[in-house]
Amino acid sequence: MRISIVTGEIEKRIGVNGKPYAIGFQLLLPEQWNKKFLFQGGGGTNGIVSPAIGKTPVRGSDALPALSRGYALASTGKVTVVAKQLIEQMYQTKPSKSFFMGCSNGGREAMQAAMRYPQEFDGVVAGNPGFRLSRAAVAEAWDNQHFLKYAPTNEKGEKIVANALTQADLDVVVKGVLKQCDAKDGLADGIINAWEQCGFKPEMVKAELGERAEQKVALLNAIFGGAKNSQGENVYASWPYDAGLNTNGWRVWKHGSSQTAEPNAINFMMGVQSLAQYFMTPHNPAFDMLTFDFDKDVAKTAEIAGVNDADETDLSYLQAKGGKMIIFEGVSDPVFSAHDLRDWYNQLQVNMQDVQGFARVFMVPGMNHCGMGSATENFDPLTALEQWTDEGKAPDFILAKAGSEMSNKAKEMPLCPYPKIATYIGGDENKATSFECK
C-alpha cells in the first residue's frame, strides 16, 4: 500500500541562546485510510521526531526542550491542528475519530491532550504516564542521593553506585516479595496481582542479603518509602514491591551496572540535567542534584509543574464530550510510581461521578517502564479504546500475554480495571479464562 510521508516543522525560530528551535512532526497519509487520526506521543525530553506508528520512545534525545510551554503542552495542540488540516487537504474529509497514544512522556502528553484539548480527541491511551514529571524528578534526586550514600567503595575509595544493590541482592528481594505476596490473588505463578495487599518489608530478607545487609535494608526502605522532607512527609509517592524489580528494565533506570565512579543509570545521566535545567526555576545548569534540599527546593519545581504536569483531577470536558481514557502502568515501573497514579485516580473518583464510565486504569504487575519486566506485557490498549469509542463497549479487561523476559511464554492474564485485580478461579493456570476481575 502506498503511503505518503509528511515531515514538517512549526514555529521555526532562533532562540535567545542563538540556537534554532521548532516543533517537529511526521504524518503518514496512507492511500487506503480508515478515517481515523492517531497522534503518537514522544518520550523523555523529546527533541527528536520518531517515525510515525513506530516504537513509542521513552527517553527522547539529550537536547533540552526548546520552550517550556511548547514541550509541556502547546506542541500537542498545534501539531494536532496542522495534522488535521493536512488530512482534510489530502482526503477532502475530516477524521471520523481522533486518538492520542503515548507512553512515558508520551503518556503525560496523552493526559495533557485529555485535559487541555478534549475537543480535539475522542479518546487517549496514556501508558506509564509521567503526569507529575516535576515531582518524579524530585524522586530521582532522592534516589540518587541514597544510592550514593549506601554505595560501597572500590579499592580506589570510589563509590560504585551499581553495587549498592547487586543483582544477587535484587534476586533475594524478589524471592522474598513472591513468598510474601504472590499467592494473595489465589495462585502462586510469579505474578503479583494483589500488589496493594503485599505487605513485604526488606527486614524479612535481611538474613539473606549477606555483607552490608544493614545498609541494603536501609537503602530499600528509603527508596521504596518515597522522597520525604525532614518532617517525614512524602514529597513524592512511595513505591510498591513487585516481581519485576530484579530485571534489567528496573536496574537500568535506578542504579545501572557501571563498575566505575561514573554511574550509568538513566536517573543519574538524564535526571540530573532535567531537574537543574528544566524543572527548577530559576534554571541553573550548575546545580548539583546531590545538594537538593527536600525542605526548601521542592517549591522551586512549582512554576514548571503548573504548565508541565498533567495531574488535573477534573476531566469534566472530556467526560461531557463522551471522550474515553485508558491508562496503563507497570507496577514495577522504576520511573513513575504506580502508587502515584493510583492516588491520582482515586482523587479523580472523589471529585467526579461515574469515572469508570469514561476513564479506566489498568495496572500491569511485573512490568517496568513502558514494557519489559517479569510481566504479561503484550496487550493492545488501542483496540480496546476503539471498541469503547466506536461501539460503547467499555473494557472490563484487556487480554495480556507473556513478554520476552517471562520464563513462562505460555502465560496469559486479564488486565483488570483498577481497583479490580485478576483473581484465580481454577483451571489452566496459563489461560486468561482461569482468572476473574474482582
From TrEMBL:
Keyword Signal: yes
Keywords: Calcium, Disulfide bond, Hydrolase, Metal-binding, Serine esterase, Signal
One Pfam short name: Tannase
Listed GO MF terms: carboxylic ester hydrolase activity; metal ion binding
Source organism superkingdom: Bacteria
Record InterPro entries: AB_hydrolase_fold, Tannase/feruloyl_esterase
Gene3D superfamilies tied to this protein: alpha/beta hydrolase
Family under the similarity heading: Belongs to the tannase family.
Protein's recorded name: Tannase and feruloyl esterase
